[in-house]
Amino acid sequence: xxxxxxxxxxxxxAHARADHPDExxxxxxxxAGSDRxxxxxxxxxxxxxxxxxxxxxxxxxxxxxxMDSRDEEPxxxxxxxxxxxxxxxxxDVSYASEPNAHYVLLSTRLQDSTQVRSYRIIxxxxxxxxxxxxxxxx
Length: 138
Prior knowledge:
Elements: E1 2-5, H1 6-19, E2 25-31, E3 39-43, H2 57-69, E4 72-81, H3 90-95, E5 102-107, E6 115-122, E7 125-129, E8 131-134
Parallel strand pairs: 1-8, 4-5
Antiparallel strand pairs: 2-3, 2-4, 5-6, 6-7
């Protein structure tokens, strides 16, 4: 199960809506080993595509160095689907390389709502998990 604060969910949705019709992507880092998403890090979709996302390799390297220096890890890796449901594509599954991460997908295909779903993707196996949203810290 993914337990995540409402402000982080709102930030992912806002990023996905702002980048629509292109897919948005990013990471929510948290203390290593905690499974606690805390620090929202929106990334640029280097592919600038409506059907595909790609982290810029330089940005990703900087992010991982920063997380390493802060004793953090990627707790959530998120991206949006602009024309389909929030379910991992074959490409999403093939690129999933963080076995401890929650892969959150947001569907922005409907103008008045955003579907938010979370998955564990390990060795090509996709398992949907419950998302528990908690109150934001004041």
